[in-house]
Amino acid sequence: MLLDLAAGVVLIAGSVACAAAAFLGRERLVWLLAAAGLACAAAAALLDSAHEGLAVASCVLVTAGAGLLVLRLHPDVTRLSWLDAAMGASSTAALIVALGADPALAVAVGGVAGVIALSRWNPAFPVVVTLAGVAGLGAGEAPAAVAALLVGGAAWLPARHRTPGPEFSPVVLSALLAFATIALTLLTVGQFAELSDVTIALAIVTVLTGMARAGLTVVERLRESRHQAQTDDLTGLGNRRYLVDRLDDAVASCAERDGELALLLVDLDGFKELNDTLGHHAGDQVLRQIGPRLSSLLREEDTLARLGGDEFAVVLVPGDETTASAAGLRLRSALEQSFEVGGIRVHIDASVGIAIFPHHSRAALGLLQRADVAMYEAKRMRTGHEVYLPERDRHSRDRLALVGDLHGALEAGELVLHYQPKADVRTGAVRGVEALVRWQHPQRGLLGPGHFLPLVEQSELTRALTAFVLDRALVEIGELRRAGIDLGVAVNLGPADLLDLGLPSEIQRILALHGFEPANLRLEVSEDAVVADLERTVEVLTCLREIGVPIALDDFGAGRSSLVHLRELRIDELKIDRSFVMRLAEDERNAAITHSIVDLGHRLGLNVVAEGVQSEAAWTRLAEWGCDEVQGHLLSRPMTAAELDPWLRAVARRPVKRSGPPVWPAA
Question: Minimal CA–CA distance to 557: which of 492, 633, 612, 603?
Fold first, then answer.
């Protein structure tokens, strides 16, 4: 009697401890259930008449509290975890009942097994202590007193969230096999021996739950496999298969209701150069940032996917040409904002091709092909985005054929240089030339840079092409210099060159190899090339100027953030874009801009060159404004080195005019 009284007092104390923790806001419902459970256990110890029912109730309540604590501390409890808990509770309770133990002990053991399985075999420490108390409550009056201390103490332990364990592991598999083995063994024994109905019922529940668990596992594995098959591992976006499936569904839906949809193909410009220079890990960092940036601009019903490499696709439903063009502008604007990669800021541009259902194709793959044509047209024209036009499809087929020829063109010697002269505005003296690459294709004839330079950038040949142009220009102009013609040569650099920290040493090596003075070589960079990574570009150009090579900023005014580039870059020459110069004699707005650029360049101490001079009127106005040099068709069209030599000698012999632009010999 005294033992029961002492146990009851301890249980009441434990109940009070749990209630106090609950009222102080420590997982209130959890510890209120535990307090109620300990109170039932105390009543069972003090009132023998209701002992069994109260003991079972106490185990149920404290187990429920432990289960609720698992839900609070293990946020990722899945359906499989609930089924594991049901298997554990039913199988272990069936075994205890079959062994003839008290119902309270069966509930306690089943509850402990179920809660541990619910936590995915990774219970938090307060849960472990509480479950030890549950086991004590089911074991009898003396252990119940210890249980009160355990549960009451657990209420005051720090509760920290736990990372859920794996749904499949050796521990989980072993436990499931053990639960199933117990249930099947009991059902087999029940064929030959007398077992209680409760035992048989619990064993059947275990088997059925195990079957449900197996079925759900198969379904979830199939769903996960399908998800993985349609998901890009790097970005988490849908992949090409996912896009085609969604596009097929959208096409079918639009066909039923005579609606429109738009497919946008987004290809990053200069991404291969970024990979080549900073490494593929840097490119991966950029790709991971693109998904969230573009997704924020799309509607919930739109689809975004990564097709592979640096190519993304967007499906707009509904979507017409106007909507698609506006979306293309938004997407490009978002991509123009810098990306943070390894502590430096990288700028990426993009080209967007647009195809519309049903106007351009009534099939998903047809729309992809049409959008691809439009995207490459946007790259070729440098317009940012283009809508598919049937007459441009021929260019796409030509492009595919040229890509196959391009890799062998350098080795076969099919690339040649033409030279565009530059002349002093005041004297007409030709001080230098700009090297321009052409492709002497064996079947297609002489191709201008617009036909193949975009392919060079996409085929990772930019650095190889720059090395070829530098080497050939120094050889050919070097021969003219040795023949007594004082002439400098300018060579254009691409985005990949400006990201290569090894470029200055490579150019220094080529200069020494050909005995060419650095001051007679001029390197031209366009604003579009600079924006890839301004900080790295500044570093490369600074190293080039340190070895004595002058730098010119090409196409000034046609790119972005021109004044920022003038402020940040260390350059020697400013070349005014031909779009301002070609019509300055007819358009006063162009004239005002050109005049202002000349004045700005001189204020910064730069040599100013006007490109695209085609008329004597333009030459005269540029001379009035103090422009230093000009180049354009008024002087001559680009010519080979063999043609340049006699042309320069004819220039030296031409009659001198006292006013106006000089008379130029025919090229």
Answer: 612
Least confident window among 30-34, 126-130, 144-148: 144-148
How many angstroms separate the Cα of 38 from the Cα of each of 105, 208, 487, 550?
A: 15, 33, 100, 88
**What's phi and psi for 231, nearest 5 deg?**
-120, 135
Among 147-156, 367-376, 498-507, 532-541, the range scoring the smallest mean pLDDT is: 532-541
Q: Distance between CA 357 and CA 367 in Å, rounded?
A: 7
Of residues 380, 385, 364, 223, the one with CA closest to residue 305 = 364
Q: What is the dihedral of CA 113, 114, 119, 125, to 10 degrees?
A: -50
Q: Distance between CA 53 and CA 428 in Å, rounded?
A: 113
Q: What would the two tokens of residue 390 be?
A: 């049937």
What is the distance between the alpha carbons of residues 319 and 357, in angstroms, rounded to a whole number?
A: 9
Q: Return the pLDDT at 436.
A: 92
pLDDT at 166 over 60: yes
Beta strands in 536-579 (DSSP E): 551-556, 573-576
In the predicted model, is pLDDT for residue 394 greater than 80? no
Residue pair 610/579 in contact by the 8 Å Cβ criterion: no
User: For residues 261 and 470, what is the distance between their CA atoms, to the nearest angstrom?
Assistant: 48
Provide the edge-to-edge strand list for the sheet that holds 261-269.
303-308, 311-316, 261-269, 349-357, 385-387
Angstrom distance (rounded) from CA 229 to CA 657: 75
595-638 pLDDT per residue, tens: 999 999 999 999 999 999 988 889 999 999 999 999 998 888 99
115: left (phi over 0), alpha (psi -120 to 50) or beta: alpha
User: What does residue 94 show for φ and ψ, rounded to 5 degrees?
Assistant: -60, -40
Residue with tokens 């004595």: 548
DSSP type of residue 572: S
In whole angstroms, what is the distance from residue 533 CA to residue 274 CA?
9
Whether residue 224 has pLDDT greater than 90? no
Instruction: Identify which of 48, 43, 54 has the alpha carbon closest to the alpha carbon of residue 8.
Output: 43
| Greatest distance between any 2 Cα atoms in the chain | 134
Average pLDDT over every residue of 489-506: 86
pLDDT of residue 53: 82
Q: What angle do CA 268, 559, 617 make, to 5 degrees?
A: 140
CA–CA distance, 57 with 17 (Å, rounded to integer): 19
Computed over its alpha carbons, how large is the radius of gyration of the chain? 40
Q: How many CB atoms lie within 10 A of CB 255?
A: 13
Beta strands per DSSP E along 616-666: 629-630
The candidate with the shortest Cα–Cα distance to 630, out of 576, 583, 584, is: 576
Q: How buried is 72 (Cβ within 10 angstroms: 0-12 exposed, 13-18 middle, 19+ buried)?
A: middle
Is 573 or 538 the better-scoring residue by pLDDT?
573
Q: Which helix (H) or strand (E) holds 655?
A: none
Using CA atoms, how far apart are residues 523 and 553, in angstroms rounded to an integer?
Answer: 9
pLDDT band at 417 (very low <50, low <70, confident <90, very high): very high
Please measure the distance between the N-terminal and C-terminal CA atoms of the chain and give it in whole angstroms: 123
Residue 264 has a CB neighbour count (10 Å cut-off) of 25
pLDDT tier, 350 (very low <50, low <70, confident <90, very high otherwise): confident
Helix (H) or strand (E) holding 625: helix 616-625
| CA gap 338, 122 in Å, rounded | 43
Q: What is the pLDDT of residues 319-347, one digit of tens each?
A: 888 888 888 889 988 888 888 877 777 77
The span from the CA of 369 to the CA of 372, in Å, is: 5
Q: In this predicted model, what pLDDT tens digit does every residue of 452-481 receive, in sequence order? A: 776 676 666 778 888 889 999 999 999 999
